[in-house]
């Protein structure tokens, strides 16, 4: 990318919103929320970790039931950062990502901040 001079115009993004519950359903653990995301590219505010690692105990503040934890940053928030980088306006974000409002309300800043 550097040789072609496009390092700031390319972004690679992986997403995994798959996780497991902390408790069993009798046959194992159920699907949960949260996961890992990796964002790479010359224009990325790199070498950073975003979000909060949850306390892995049943009944913590992020536990909604049976050890199913709500992530501190939603997939929609990550996608919204990318959408802004692609040129989507802040005012369009709620229409494109209807669940974004549950994690992000400050439309004067970027949802996560990993893109310039």
3D structure, described in words:
- The chain has 116 residues and is α+β, with helices and mostly antiparallel strands.
- It has one domain (12-102).
- 14% of the residues lie in helices and 20% in strands.
- It is built from two helices and six strands; from the N terminus they run E-E-E-E-E-E-H-H.
- It has helices at 75-86, 93-96, and strands at residues 12-15, 19-24, 29-32, 37-40, 63-65, 68-69.
- The relative contact order is 0.19.
What would you say about this model in short?
The chain has 116 residues and is of the alpha+beta class. It has two helices and six strands, in the order E-E-E-E-E-E-H-H.
Topology:
Elements: E1 12-15, E2 19-24, E3 29-32, E4 37-40, E5 63-65, E6 68-69, H1 75-86, H2 93-96
Antiparallel strand pairs: 1-4, 2-3, 5-6
Order of strands side by side in the largest beta sheet?
1-4
Kindly provide the radius of gyration, computed on alpha-carbon positions and rounded to a whole number of angstroms: 16 Å
Mean pLDDT, nearest integer? 86
Spatial shape: globular
Low-pLDDT stretches are none
Binned, the helix content reads 10-25%
Number of helical regions: 2
Number of β-strand runs: 6
Strand content of the residues, in percent?
Answer: 15-25%
N- and C-termini, Cα separation: 18 Å
Summarize the main sheet.
2 strands, antiparallel
Derived from helix and strand composition plus strand pairing, the structural class reads: alpha+beta
What is the H/E order? EEEEEEHH
Structurally, how many domains make up the residues? Answer: 1
Task: Write a concise keyword list for the protein shown above.
6 strands; two-stranded antiparallel sheet; 2 helices; alpha+beta; 116 residues
